[in-house]
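Q: Given only this backbone (361 positions), what sequence would you predict?
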């Protein structure tokens, strides 16, 4: 119940029906796996999220993966048995929502399944309009639960390339990824798949599974307990693209100072606190101006980011077989063991992806 700390519980809900979706476009999905992340922890801590109108609880879970059980008469592309992931945001009223870019909404209110004002996927079945359901090839069934976090990296990086078309010939050679958790690993992967030299920063010192995983895709891991970002940048930077996803606003200002001329810095951390900082403002500003640098915020993802995310997951399986599955460190079997999901979230202890195995396919 958003607003009440530690109130996560099981609830009995009616099985959704295809007729809940207008115009015969309904897709009934049997949920197989649902990943959880810091957003779920914040919702359960009553720091974030809201229940849908008419409910005093929110079904959580925005990283869904499931199998189509049945489709309405006007569903065109999906068939029973298909593996699918549904997007998270639902349209509001702005012009961006009207063209399927609700991730870019300018409305003050946003609707996100499992997060804000719409029920999510940590349940046995859900129904959704076909336009919000993305097919995942059978060959990705074991790692499909990584698609939603992948789309967050995907959107940020795609936006960066879009923006950099301003430069006509921009081709990034070096990238830095701030944060080596699930999002940092996936952002590092996306940049490696594009042939870029990647330096990924995290706090933990080796031995560290995430650092080993970065080795396996040819990215360089730097522990900030051993070297500062600025020190590492002297050797490996400056960086043409920086992806920031640590959750710490302080790192943003470190990132600004290691960005190359004409570079682009992508900010994706949701920082709900009230932190204040002293920064070398003149110097940072001057370097941005004299270096024609860009900084952009990114949230959520569009359907297109889910589709290119599927392609990147496929390429990753081809180039680094088995790598994605190594991210799935903490399975929890059965909806009734939800408390264990949250115990892991509270004390991640080496966890990369914590997820609920709701049903077997
Ligand atoms: C989700 C995004 C969402 C964001 C803000 C993240 O955890 O993965 O889809 O837009 O939280 O609510
Ligand atoms: Zn998330």
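A: Predicted residues:
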């Amino acid at each position: 119940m958003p607003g009440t700390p530690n109130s996560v519980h099981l609830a009995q809900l009616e099985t959704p029906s295809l007729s809940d979706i207008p115009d015969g476009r309904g897709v009934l999905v049997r949920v197989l796996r649902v990943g959880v992340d810091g957003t779920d922890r914040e919702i359960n801590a009553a720091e974030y999220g809201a229940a849908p109108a008419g409910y005093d609880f929110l079904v959580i879970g925005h990283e869904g993966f499931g199998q189509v059980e049945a489709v309405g008469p006007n569903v065109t592309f999906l068939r029973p048995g298909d593996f699918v992931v549904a997007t998270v945001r639902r349209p509001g009223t702005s012009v961006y929502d009207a063209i399927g870019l609700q991730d870019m909404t300018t409305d003050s209110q946003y609707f996100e399944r499992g997060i804000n004002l719409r029920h999510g996927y940590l349940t046995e079945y859900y129904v959704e309009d076909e336009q919000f359901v993305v097919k995942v090839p059978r060959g990705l069934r074991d790692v499909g639960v990584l698609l939603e976090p992948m789309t967050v990296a995907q959107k940020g990086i795609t936006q960066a390339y879009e923006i950099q078309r301003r430069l006509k010939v921009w081709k990034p050679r070096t990238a830095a990824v701030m944060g080596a958790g699930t999002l940092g690993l996936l952002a590092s992967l996306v940049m490696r798949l594009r042939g870029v030299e990647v330096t990924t920063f995290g706090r933990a010192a080796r031995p560290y599974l995430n650092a080993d995983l970065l080795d396996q895709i040819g990215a360089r891991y730097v522990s900030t307990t051993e070297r500062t970002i600025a020190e590492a940048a002297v050797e490996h930077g400056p960086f043409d693209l920086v992806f920031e996803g640590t959750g710490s606003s302080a790192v943003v200002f470190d990132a600004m100072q290691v960005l190359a001329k004409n570079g682009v810095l992508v900010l994706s951390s949701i920082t709900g606190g009230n932190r204040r900082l002293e920064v070398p403002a003149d110097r940072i500003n001057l370097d941005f101006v004299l270096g024609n640098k860009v900084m952009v915020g990114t949230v959520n993802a569009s359907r297109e980011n889910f589709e290119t995310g599927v392609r990147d997951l496929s390429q990753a399986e081809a180039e680094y077989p088995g790598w994605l599955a190594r991210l799935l460190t903490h399975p929890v079997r059965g909806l009734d063991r939800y408390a264990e999901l949250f115990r892991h979230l509270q004390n991640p202890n080496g966890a990369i992806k914590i997820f609920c195995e709701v049903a077997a396919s």
